[in-house]
Every structure is written in C-alpha cells, then in structure tokens.
Design brief:
single chain, alpha+beta, Pnp Oxidase, Chain A, 6-stranded antiparallel beta barrel
C-alpha cells in the first residue's frame, strides 16, 4: 500500500501531461512532453512513445529521468506542481508487466498510435502547493521499496 500523501496522489490522478528530462550521451539535458498514467499502488508512471523517438534512444542508454507536472489548467495566483525523479524500467521488469494494459485503459484512443508503453519507477516526488499554505512542500522518497513521506 502506498504511503504517498493523498494530496500528491489526487494531483497526479487529475493531471494528464508531464515533461520528462533525460540526458544525452554528452550529459546535456533533453526534455520531452507526454501523456501519462499514474499507478498509485506501486508508485509508477506510464507513458507511450515511439521507439524511434530521440528520447527513447537516450533512455535506453541512461534510464535515470526527472520530470515536472503542472496543472492542466494553470492558476497564476496559486503555485502548484510536482517534480519527480525516477528510473525507466526495462519492459521485462516485473514492475512493468501491466504497463500496456493500464496505460490503454485510461487512454484507449492511444491503441491507434504506434509505440511502446514505458514505465518509470518513481523514486522521489516533491509537490509544491501554495493552497496548503505559503511555502508548503510535500516530499516522498522510495527507500528500499519502503516509502517515506516528509512535509516541510
């Protein structure tokens, strides 16, 4: 059972698009946007992309990624968003076994688009939400498959 704060879970479930950053061979950052599905039970993140995409090749060489998620509808008076870090799992990894089904259950129209469903094992999340109070941040970190929540 996940111990990610319910505010983080609700936010991730309500949004649809993320920006993911990976590194190229020279260590420079490269970002791309994607639609995603969040698996709260295992703290996983699924997205679909073509294997021919530049970022797919970069991830194959270095699976460590970071990302951001902003609200689908921005409110300039309230700062809200997620920063995350994780690792893209290989398709045969046990935690990635349901990725295809879970992604297409939420995005059935994506079945018409060629591509593979990738799984990111989320290792760290920081959520900023000024609705919770000025400067309030929620943090979660995976620790040896045990999850820990901190509020600062």
């Amino acid at each position: 059972m996940s111990t990610i704060n319910n505010s983080i879970i609700r936010f991730l479930q309500q949004q649809t698009c993320a920006t993911i950053c990976c590194k190229n061979g020279g260590g420079s950052p490269y970002c791309f946007s994607c639609y995603y599905v969040f698996n709260k039970e295992n703290s996983l993140f699924y997205f679909k992309s073509s294997m021919d995409a530049y970022h797919s090749a970069l991830i194959a060489n270095n699976p460590i990624v970071a990302g951001t998620i902003l609200p689908d509808k921005l409110n300039k008076l309230i700062t809200r968003g997620i920063q995350l870090q994780g690792e893209v799992l290989q398709q045969f990894h046990p935690m990635a076994k349901d990725a295809y089904m879970r992604y297409h259950k939420k995005h059935p129209m994506a079945l018409a688009i060629k591509g593979e469903v990738f799984t990111i094992r989320i290792d760290y999340i920081k959520m900023t939400d000024s609705k919770l109070g000025f400067g309030k941040k929620l943090n979660w970190k995976r620790q040896n498959d045990l999850e820990k929540v901190t509020i600062s």
